[in-house]
Amino acid sequence: MSEDFLDNIFEKAATGETLIKNRRTLTIDYVPENLPFRDEETKTVAQTLSVVLKAARPSNLLLFGKPGTGKTAVVKKVIEHLHKKAKELGLEVIVPIINTKSANTAYKVLYEIAEDMGINKEEKKLQVHFTGLSMGEATDRILDFIGKKKLNVVLVFDEIDSLVDKNGDDILYNFTRANERISKGGFISLIGISNSLTFKDKLDPRVRSSLSEEEMVFNPYKVEQLQKILIDRARVAFNDDAIDGAAINLCAAMAGKENGDARKAIDLLRVAAEIAEREKADKVEEKHIRLAQEKIEKDTNFEILKNSTTHTKIIIMAIMKSKIGNTGEVYEIYSSLCRHTEQEPLTQRRITQIISELDQLGLVISNIMSQGRYGRSQRIKITVPVLTIKEALKDDPILSALLMIND
What is the pTM for the complete model shown? Predict the structure, then answer.
């Protein structure tokens, strides 16, 4: 690839017509001034946290809902206004917001809490280093800091279900009981934001009762609500007449049909605009929305497949090679492929669990078929194009040979 080729790409980007006037408004981190259709949820979160302004500890709060239903945006909006009012009253409220999915180990969660609270800028004996401490010592230092400074802390765990899935609920257990230790001043209260409605079922009963003092469920947006959200967002994101009304309606319909995910709808809008700009189109149209949908699905599936475990990849290939598609046949083919690659096969029960996980990710579809008096049988099919699978797996040194066998 020549340098002229790259220079040409950047020159076109710098000098070409733009349809988007404010790209930040189409990113995941942008919180709009108004949050349509979330007034009641915002009111409830604000009322729960309002006792902070009386230097009292608010109840722990759990927010449930599918991705893209406004949970994090509502919390951030309320926290922003809480900080403003607390400052007017001369109060200090510390609100670390930790995304536990990106902080993918329990220790890193504690490190980020310490960083956000400013502990690591204080006296050396309370610092929580990036490595080198036990979990217990790191937790003790955070709680000692809160008690010593008599701080009012509201700790937000975004995607809290990811923390528990990966690391268990020890951190939550320690923090839900922390106020017994910080009895001489200050407090710590928790807000958990979960994408899983069954998240509580994974918790120790003692953690569950302490953490869910108050709860709220965020329902998915309806198509007509997504239309309003996208119209409002397009107004601040795009130049005048840069997006077709039909494109917005299609975008809302696509996101609403799946799971009412406003985040996905806005991502779809952004990618469609980028495609339209590359084409030097006058405006974003329905065709750009459809192309964006294809691109997002392809990119997502590719990344999931490429970063899957070896056994998950072998299962995918076994399903591809399966003719009937029931679990028995898939397991038989999987075991054969394991022998080809000198892998120790997992149990059939574990394979069934992995297939269920793939179903949830949308990579396969698993239906239960009735066979009359012979009972029921599971039918598993791949939903991802074969070319995408081959492209994602071709550089895997273990599976490259299997791809040739599959051909």
Answer: 0.73
* 38 within 8 A of 32, measured Cβ to Cβ: no
Q: Where are the alpha helices (DSSP H) in 22-95?
A: 39-49, 71-88
Query: What tokens appear for 278 in the block?
Result: 């590359």
CA 118 to chain centre: 26
In sequence order, what are the beta bridge partners of 381?
Answer: 365
Q: What is the distance of C-alpha 30 from the center of its chain?
A: 15
Closest alpha carbon to 354 in 387, 386, 324, 331:
331
CB 98, CB 112: distance < 8 Å: yes
Distance of CA 22 to CAs 237, 280, 293, 318, 345, Å?
5, 18, 22, 46, 51
Where are any strands of DSSP class E within 91-207?
A: 93-94, 97-99, 152-158, 187-194
Residue with tokens 């340098």: 3
Separation of alpha carbons 76 and 73, rounded Å: 5
Tell me the residue length of the chain: 407
For 189-207, the pLDDT digits (tens) are 999 999 887 788 888 888 8
* Token pair for 184: 């001489």
Q: How far apart are CA 55 and CA 227, in angstroms?
A: 41
Residue range 152-185, pLDDT digits in tens? 999 999 999 888 877 888 999 999 999 988 867 7
Per the CB < 8 A criterion, the answer to whether 248 and 210 are in contact is no
CA distance 188 to 367: 46
